[in-house]
Amino acid sequence: MKELSQSVSYDVQDGVAVLITNNPPVNTMSYHVRQGLVDGLEEADKDGDVRAIVLYCEGRTFFAGMDITEFGNPDVPEAPGITDVIKKLEGASKPVIAALHGTPLGGGFETALGCHHRVAVPSAKMGLPEVKLGIIPGAGGTVRLPRVVGVQAALEMMTSGNPISAERALSAGLVDEIVDGDLLSGAIAFVQKVASADEPLARIRDSDEKLQAARTNPEIFDVFRKSIARKTRGFKAPEAIIQSVEGAVRLPFDEALTNERRIFVECQKSPEAKAQQYFFFAERQAKKIPDVPKDTPTRGIEKVGVIGAGTMGGGISMNFLNRGIPVTIVEATQEALDRGIGIIEKNYASTAKKGRITEDDVKERMSLLTGALDYQALSDVDLVIEAVFEDMDLKKTVFRAIDEICKPGCVLASNTSYLNINEIAAVTSRPQDVIGLHFFSPANIMRLLEVVRGDETSNEVLATCMKLGAHIGKVAVVVGVCRGFVGNRILGARMRQSDDLLLKNAMPQEIDAVVFDFGFPMGSFAMRDLAGLDIGWLGDETPDKDINVRHQLCTRGRRGQKTGGGFYDYESGSRTPIPNAEVEQIIQEVSKNAGVTRTEISAADMLKRMIYAMVNEAAKILDEGIALRAAAIDVIWVYGYGWPTYRGGLTYYADQIGLTNIVEDLDRFSTEYDDPELEPAPLLRQLAREGKSFQDFVRQDHFEA
Ligand code: T1G
Ligand code: NAD
Fold this sequence. Notes:
By secondary structure, this protein is an alpha/beta fold. 47% of the residues lie in helices and 10% in strands.
């Protein structure tokens, strides 16, 4: 065994050269990896005793792509680049095979496509996720992949960025063989067979029959563009991928590679790519809790109890059933219990109908669900999640009861959206075991989980819930206790601005258009119509009825999509909001009742008022320590509220605008609109004054573990 670089070594086994890479944690193709591979390929190609070459990685995965931290880093040697590595292995005079395990992604998978053969373990998941980083595959992926799987499948893989299983890769011709036993010996055995067959090397560049269909039917590209337009709105990279694949079909191989590289470099320079790459690392940062070390012990969660089988209780239960964890769901009445369980079954049935799960899966998951009307049924669960009405007294009653019944060590969690976790914990004898687990609706779909840390919550309970969150496929982010925690608190700031704009300046469709054009899936008023205008409506108890638009709409039966109309009209079976003249009339009347003279406002100022109010609230949240870092706020708004990742995140966006500019505009707005909430927060002023950004902000007390 010979060391070629700090991460690559060279070994010859039975006439096969094995280039072994070990670059923890995920074998990114850092410059020293690339150098080692080039040197190893040269050596192997020259070595007369060597008949074939294997690329093999130690650790948890084959190359997971280029090292994103090297992007734009002038201190990192550019040469040899990844394209040099691939050129060398594709051009080798001896068969080269890639031994795939873990997550061969991006440049790692492109390297494998440059090899003459690929074998994989059954658990491998491979793909080209560059689109998620705002770039395109830049090492031949857009040119070689279509030559193996065809244009349509290649476009789908690269514009979604989602990996595929080894089994799918085998059936798609991307992998030659699945190795059930030891991967390295399987790869060596396979490539020795190839070497002794002495046939021409199977270079993907030499085969283009899979491109013919697109050559004779170039419309395929426009059809594909239309099919992804809605879900990729605002993102630049998907179109860049399509253009590069068009080049791969139109141009000779090497010219297509050059074309791809040109498009890659253009994307890499874009603000969208910088924003999405910021978000890649923000998401990983948000997982870390400074004062809760990685080795903090966690509790086993084998059985779960859910109280309340309403909108949230049902969805929450499905997350655990999906992972094979038995759930006992407790309701107040048999009718509510039957309704709740019925909805879970219906949801699974429709998922099975779409072919995403099998009928057996449905049976299996429903068999893990037990309904009950008595809390006693929760005496041996490891975790209880309460999801009853949002009423403090009721929640306290529930927590007093489960404190009596649940076994020692059971984690007691509340799914409250706004209420004070410390106050709930205080009614129990074990506040250290109480935590908030704030799921988002629909709870079986939305990936965000706000993990609300109470003053007494133990590190063990916190670590247990963070681990469990990842286990059920959630992006878990720790937040402190305040009204609405991080996500809903910032949403409140935006909604108050949109309400004020509605009263003084613009109509729902104008305000929502600004938010939609910014990149959100929908605006505040369409969102409220979706959730239902009567959630939290006090009916006759509503104060200031004649200057409250929502009250005026609800009293007229306009309660949102569920009644066919709210701020907008909805045709039956459609979710498309249609402006309504009567609603505009109501809004005009409310303005008059409020003594307001409506004035014009530019779309730019409307956007600034809503977004900067959110930025201001984010500064307060950071200052109070409710969020550990700015990145946490960005992750919450991307996964909970549809903030577009091509804008990085709320605090990242603010930093790009410049906090000084935001303070200036907020000062103007707070005076012009006489709105103290727009008065810049002390931390925002301080950071602006010091020429700092949100990313620079670190709360000392959080990080003095
Ligand atoms: N570059 C730099 N660091 C990376 C990295 C990468 N590509 N991938 C992971 N890390 C770090 C990560 O920040 C974390 O660090 C640690 O590794 C573990 O990651 C030409 C140019 C592989 C599926 O997009 O999807 O190739 O926080 O916590 O959940 O076309 O990481 O511990 O300090 O995510 O087990 C294309 C990105 C690059 C894959 C593992 N590749 N990575 O997930 O662990 S662009 C990707 C992932 C490219 C070419 C282009 C995941 C993973 P820390 P983790 P995980
Ligand atoms: P819901 O009205 O749909 O369901 C609440 C359920 O609790 C009802 O089925 C009711 O019968 C049951 N219930 C009431 N008292 C009970 C008791 N003593 N024992 C057992 N069951 C009882 O409400 P929801 O929307 O599911 O909200 C539940 C909780 O989740 C609230 O705290 C809410 O703030 C929070 N939440 C809601 C959303 C959302 O979008 N709906 C999102 C996140 C969090």
